[in-house]
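Q: Now give one record:
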Amino acid sequence: MTTPRARSFDAAAALYHAHRPGYPGALFDAVEELAGRPLRGARVADVGAGTGIASALLDARGARVVAVEPGDGMAAEFRRAHPAIPVVRGDGNRLPLASGSVDFLTYAQAWHWTDPARSVPEARRVLRPGGALALWWNDLDTTVPWIAEQDRRLRDFFGAVGVPARESLEGLEAVTREVSWSRRIPLEAHLANHASHSAFLVLGASRTREFMDAERARLLALFPDGVVEEAYAVTLHVAAC
């Protein structure tokens, strides 16, 4: 979680918090089902918590949440947005948590910033017997034609961007579930969501503006009212530790 791309979020924490999507209730239903235990009353550590998008939803489900976040800017935005939820500094490779102290360890859009050779043993260490590690990624659904076309443009624009492999669990056996959902948002919010991703954050303002201006023109032809319906597919992995 200490690569330049991972650190890039700190300077854009407010943008990230304002425009990144949340998660549907069905995702947390699936976490409980696959883990075989409720979130309500459970001790949950949300790692790579960012500005608290997942942490706040876990808290709303009745979990007792502690957030773990390495970045200065993200942690500051978290504290501003969610002052009642504790946040401690650290990352998944060396968790600042006592052994056997949590029922769930969650990573929302964050596991790929860890080294599984270190983060898997750390997960085993901090989880109580019967505890569960839950990882998920919230991706735009490329089975939708306009999203697939945009995804191709992004891949052509960036080429190989070198994000670490996402699903590496270093020997853990995980159960996988996919949850679909959607949201309707202004086109400008859709573009701002993209701009909050690390590939754009390290690219620089000029080239980011170049891509976004071209994308705005293309999408306005498809969505002349300026409202975009984003379809998402959340990929969830739950592993007992």
Remarks:
- Residues 4-140+168-183+229-240 form a domain with the Rossmann fold fold (CATH 3.40.50.150).
- Residues 42 and 202 are 37 Å apart (CA to CA).
- The longest strand covers residues 127-140.
